Amino acid sequence: MQLDRTEIVIRQRATLELFDLSLIVLRKHIKSIMLTSALLGIPLLVVDVLMTQWMLGEDAYLVAEDLESPRFAMRSRQAFHLIMLYALQFPLISLPTTVFLGNQVFFESVSVREIVAKLVPIAGRVILVLGVLRLGLVCLVFELFVDRTLLWDWGFEFWMLGVLGFLCFAIRAGWPYAPEILGLELCPLATRAPGEISYRQRSRGLHSLLMADHVSRFTGSVMVAFLIGLMLLAAILFCQGTLTGDWLWNDWINLLALPAILWVVGMFLAVFRFLTYLDTRIRLEGWEIELRLKAEATRLRPAPVMLEVGDNSREEAVVS
Amino acid sequence: MLAGTEKLDCHARVITPENIEFEYDLAGPFQRLPAFLFDVAVRVACFLALLFVGGMLLPFLPLGGTLVNVAAVIGFFLLSWFYGMFFETRFNGRTIGKMVFKLRAISTDGRPINASQAALRNLLRLADMNLLLPLQIFSAEAPPMYIIPTMLVGFASMTLTRKMQRLGDLAAGTMVVCEQRRRAAFNLQPEDLRAYGLAELVPVTFVPSVTLAQTIGLYMENRKRLNPLRRNDIARHLADPLIQDFGMLPDTSPDLLLCALYVRTFLSADQQQRGRARLRELMTTRQPAFGKARVTGAAGRSASNSTAEVVGAKRTDEATHAFPTRPPTDPPPPAQPPTDPPPQQGLP
Lengths: 320, 348
Description:
By secondary structure, chain A is mostly helical. Chain A contains 14 helices and two strands. In chain B, helix 2 (65-90) packs across helix 4 (115-123) and helix 9 crosses helix 11.
């Protein structure tokens, strides 16, 4: 690995420039990013849709039929659940993409099989941090306990999925790089060998100093994700309207189009988060300088650049 | 550049007919968005101001409301279609929003845009605002008026083209760039004068390669934004093998060594001489801090040798490490608290 040969130019960037760069990276590696984000994204989205589709069924209609527009209420409820589930699962889903980009940045292409091989040894800590502590998988358990006989289950829908979910987002806003720390830096949860850095230590070092930046970037990314999502939804509505003459929101949008939109937006956000991670390391640790110095040290190692000189004059130096 | 190793960045390279290469920072959809919204706000404010003035003049106008309505329609038309055209022609590719956010529309060959290019790219803005959705998306009974812009065509076009051009840009042969905001490299002087002393100890036979010189320059440009611990941590990668090669003491400060290499590589002999003179002056005025050095210096060594001892790099008869790592004249380190070093495993 030649450390100063990076695919992405390593330098400090503003947030808006990072958004633009995300589009460039996405365009360049669209196939690989689609593949890696589908690795966990598609199975989890299928599970999410299966777990929430009852909200569009006849039983749910009977519960909501007293409302002025029951179909609208049912679709909004299912969309809320689906978006919350996907957003909570996103760090987990984006992990393979992060591993791919982390290698690709040094021109080291990795196949999906290799990514899986890299993820298997760290699966335990990933599931614990991203699946349990950050609710990535626990949210599916909450979903199982939602009372289907109620129009709105305050216990599980509001407190567990809503309030706890938003708290989780708040934590993610301040400490966003858990997937990078676990998947790229391979930090263990607890240190065993001296000199090893634990996940907690690394997270504190990477996040605590630029907390305001992380929160503002997270907020910005949510807004951009919302805009891109709306744009894609509009495109889908346009296609539906021109093809069928029906311009209104339908059940198929909830069951097919919305998951597809979430998946596409997720790909963009995974790239953006990886780029902000690089930017954070550049700002905080001078990563771009470190890479250059390491690369120079590697070049020096076999034979230091020493010249033979005559009469203490550098001008007369001859390469030995 | 090797095939398949294209570097990704928001950059566009333009080579003039004179074979001179320019590099521009491209502005993509997200960098353009604030400027676009600002321009929309300016246009709305202008239109509202026009309506307000029309309302104030209403009693004094012969045709009253009719004239104001006509003026409002004409005003709306002019603001919608000619605002961008006028400003970009008059102000060298910049509207008010672009001025505020430091953007500029230029030709793809690097020249300023002309009136026809400005006209074309602004007239085609409507195409970039497609797809247009009808009001029927809100209600089936609504009239089929396609007035809700999604900007999808422009966004897709900017995503798919190398120079991040929307359709208007493609037709007019223009692109939007950020005005240069990167500072030029300048001649840095290490604030730690011991670097001048240490520079003397670097073997005269050592000539850095081009990449090494660039790396040292990059380090010097950026080291001030890092805290001292991190500086040493980073510099150690390169300094350790060099310390070994130069036969210096193993605990020579890595940061100081890179500063010394910078002095040797980038500063003129005159500048180096002045730096050493300042170091000697400092040694004589700050006796407590440089006590050992003064003693060894007084033992009949040459000035250059005594400065070398201050640096604590060459092994001498006296203990050379009695001195503080940083002389008392050093500016306080940046407010940034120390960070944990990045882990050695995984991503470097």
